[in-house]
Design brief:
By secondary structure, the protein is mostly helical. The protein folds into 2 domains: about 90 residues, Ankyrin repeat-containing domain (Serine Threonine Protein Phosphatase 5, Tetratricopeptide repeat), CATH 1.25.40; about 100 residues, Serine Threonine Protein Phosphatase 5, Tetratricopeptide repeat (Alpha Horseshoe), CATH 1.25.40. The protein is built from 13 helices and no strands. Helix 8 packs antiparallel against helix 9. It is elongated, with a radius of gyration of 19 Å. The protein starts with a helix and ends in a 7-residue tail after the last helix.
């Protein structure tokens, strides 16, 4: 497997599978492991990552020993294009919770990556509902990290989402309380950011 990863070559990958058809299954049986998809996503090897994802879709949700999925690895290494390609294969990957309940949307909000935020939200708007272990939405995280542009992009995306009960849903997201009982409006006031309210 290391040879296929080093070569970044699907031909080598299939040669390994021909020699040992259960090689990917054995990796998948390990509860927390860095899979070939983690490595490919981290390196930005889009074609190889998609090939592995097609062969073993469960790898997309697999956390390694540090609590990160392949998408988290791609984000940590600035491989935004790889993230979008993997989301094109499976949009729900954006909802995979890693360490501390952080999803890729939370990560993008923390870093203030507005391009990534907009893209992720267009692919999977329901990811707005995902909260961390501290019950924080991506909106909370953007404000806590002084990423006001990221906050604004999310609010605009939230306003544009067509949801069955849009007003109720938007109100629920905007009024969500994190573990200390703070809504995003509370955080904006605490951080003296009246333009947010």
């Amino acid at each position: 497997m290391e040879a296929a990863l080093e070569a970044r070559d699907t031909k080598t990958l299939y040669e390994l599978i021909q020699r040992d058809p259960s090689i990917l299954q054995r990796i998948d049986e390990i509860p927390f492991v860095t899979t070939p998809l983690h490595v490919a996503a981290s390196n930005g090897d889009i074609e190889f990552a998609i090939e592995v994802m097609m062969l073993k879709p469960s790898f997309g949700r697999k956390l390694n020993q540090e609590g990160f999925s392949p998408l988290h690895f791609a984000l940590q290494n600035g491989q935004t294009e790889t993230v979008f390609h993997l989301l094109a294969v499976d949009a729900d990957l954006v909802r995979v919770k890693g360490r501390e309940g952080l999803t890729p949307l939370h990560f993008a909000a923390e870093k203030g990556d507005v391009h990534l935020l907009a893209g992720v939200l267009s692919v999977c708007p329901k990811s707005f509902e995902d909260v961390t272990v501290r019950s924080e939405t991506a909106l909370h995280i953007a404000l806590k990290n002084n990423e006001f542009e990221a906050f604004e992009v999310q609010v605009k995306s939230l306003e544009g989402i067509k949801h069955e009960d849009n007003r109720f849903w938007n109100k629920r997201i905007l009024n969500w309380k994190e573990k200390y009982g703070n809504t995003v409006l509370h955080l904006a006031i605490y951080q003296n950011q009246p333009q947010v309210s």
